[in-house]
Amino acid sequence: MARSWDVFCAVVDNFGDIGVTWRLARQLVAEHHQQVRLWVDDLDAFARLCPQADVRASRQTQAGVEIRHWEAQWESVEPADVVVEAFACRLPADFEVAMARRAVPPLWLNLEYLSAEGWVAGCHRLPSLQPNGLSKYFFFPGFDADTGGLLRERELLARRRAFQADPLARRAFLQGLGIDVAANERLVSLFSYEQPALGDWLQPLVDQQPPTRLLVPEGRVLPDLKAWLGVDALRAGDCVTRGRLTVQVLPFVSQAAYDTLLWCCDLNGVRGEDSFVRAQWASEPLIWHIYPQDDEAHMHKLEAFLDRFCVGLEPGLADDLRGVWRAWNRAEAPGPAWSALLAQLPALRAHAERWCVALAEQDDLASQLVAFAARQG
C-alpha cells in the first residue's frame, strides 16, 4: 500500500545523518513506491551527496523524492501518513500540532542511531506517549532479527559481486577517479574523523611490502595527513609518495561511487554510521572510526559490535582486530597488531563475506519500516 512519508533530517555531523536519510528516502520511493518528502535543514550538505540539487530551492524533486528545506511555514504543511524523526531530531512545534489535528493520526517513528548493544532489541518498536496525545515508536536499526535491520537496496549485493568479479570494470572505475593501480599494489581507503596518531599508522606502510596506495576522500582527516606528509596543502587530485606508500586525495563523490570505491579496496577505514554499514556490504576488511561521545560511551558501542563481529574468527586474528580498532578509536599508536592484521587480510576478507551473507538474511531497514507501517494500519 502506497503511503505518504515525511522524513526529517537535522544535519549534525557532516554527512552521516543526511547520508542515511537520503538513502532511505530513495529506497522507499524506488523499491516500495511510497511518496516521500525529505526535510533537510542543511541543503549545502545535501548537495554534496546529490550534486544536481539546488541549494537555494525550498522545494525540489530528486530521484523521485520531494526535497524540502526545513525552514517552512509549518501551519500550511499537512503531515504525511508516516512521520520519521531521524536520530532524535526534534520536529517543529507547529508541525507536531498539525499531526495531532490530522483526521487520521500519522504513524510517528523515531529512527534511532545504529548500535549492536544488547538492550536495543528490548526497546525496538516500543511506543512512547507524547504530550500531544500521539504515540511515538522507537525504531532501532541493528544486526539481528529482533531489530530493524540495516539499509540495503534489493540488488546491492548482486551488483557488488558482479563488479568484484569483473577486473575490467574495476580498472575503468578507478581510472575514472584518476587512480592508476600497479599490479601488486594494495588499495586502502580512509574516510575518518580527525586522527592525531595518523603518522604512527602510516609509517609502517612506508617500509612494508606490498606497496600501498592510500585513497583519502576529502574530509576531516586531511589536516592530520597534511601534517604527517609535511606539505603546505592537500587537495583532490594530489598524490604524494613516501617509500612504498602512495597517498592520493580523492574528490568528494556520490554515494553510489563511494560504495563502488569500497568494493575496490583491500581494506576500508570508515567512520560514523553510513559508511560503516556500506563497508560491511562491501565484504572487505574494515576499520571503524566510531562517532566519539562523552564519557567514552562510544567505546561500549564499539565493543558491542566487536563481540558480534569477531564470532568465528581465529582467536589470534580476533585479538589483533580488537587491538587495532581500539587503538584507532583512542588515537593511540597501533603496535604490532597493525602489521599482523595487514598480513592476514585474506582471512579477514573471507570472514567479511561470511558476515555479509549472515546480515543479508534479515530484512532490510526500509522493508521493515514499510511492513511496520502496514501493521499499524
Automatic annotation (TrEMBL):
UniProt GO molecular function? protein-arginine rhamnosyltransferase activity
* Alphabetically ordered keywords of this record: Glycosyltransferase, Transferase
Pfam short name (any one)? EarP
Q: Which InterPro entries match?
A: EarP
Which reaction(s) does its UniProt entry say it catalyses? dTDP-beta-L-rhamnose + L-arginyl-[protein] = N(omega)-(alpha-L-rhamnosyl)-L-arginyl-[protein] + dTDP + H(+)
Which family does the record claim for this protein? Belongs to the glycosyltransferase 104 family.
Purpose of the protein? Protein-arginine rhamnosyltransferase that catalyzes the transfer of a single rhamnose to elongation factor P (EF-P) on 'Lys-32', a modification required for EF-P-dependent rescue of polyproline stalled ribosomes.
Protein name in the entry: Protein-arginine rhamnosyltransferase
Organism, per UniProt? Pseudomonas flexibilis
